[in-house]
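Incident review: delayed structure delivery

Summary: a single-chain prediction request sat in the queue longer than the usual turnaround. Root cause was a stuck worker, restarted by the on-call engineer. No data loss occurred. The affected request and its eventual output are reproduced below so the record is complete for anyone auditing the incident later.

Affected input:
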Amino acid sequence: MELFKEDYGRLGKLHRSEWKKLLNSNKDLFKRIKSAPPSIIGPQLDEHGEVIADLKLIETVFFEKVANKNQHDFFKELKKVNPPAADEYMLTIGGAIERWKEDMKRIEFSLHQLKKGEHVLEKEEKRLIREEIEIKDLIETLKRHIPNLIKDIELKGLNFTELLNKIRMVEQNINSKESRLKSYLKKRKHEMPFLFE
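Output delivered after worker restart:
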């Protein structure tokens, strides 16, 4: 399935490379807004692993406030025929596109780290079950490899069954976060594919 539409409103049908060239031209409709954009937060993960600040509110308000009439009209036109292009246009003209791309990379990296942590937990859980590792060594291994995923969990003083239950609880938490991030990234790749180029 082609993620990028070729309809660009009054500009007609364009190939992706032609559209990118216009976006980068910094001329006429594509003239960048000169005033400094507000502090852009962009999509980020909160302390619970939820994505926040991805509604484009600050970016949209800023664009609406400082873009010229032709840019406003073109943006509205694009929204009707090619919503991803409209978002790309607004973020580019408003100076926030690079921040959003960086944020998507950070979220992808977070997903990678969760997968890595999940792998370590599964491996150590199997070693614990096979009695190939002592509880104190397991705790040290987990602290060394996945400190952020176990930082709020007390592991000392637990017996075998309690420790195994804690590990499984952390695995479930990781799976839940991983699933949410995968869904989020899939949605963003569909709605804003330009962020992943």
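Verification: The helical segments are 16-25, 57-66, 69-81, 83-93, 97-129, 135-145, 147-150, 160-191.
Action items: add queue-age alerting; document worker restart procedure.
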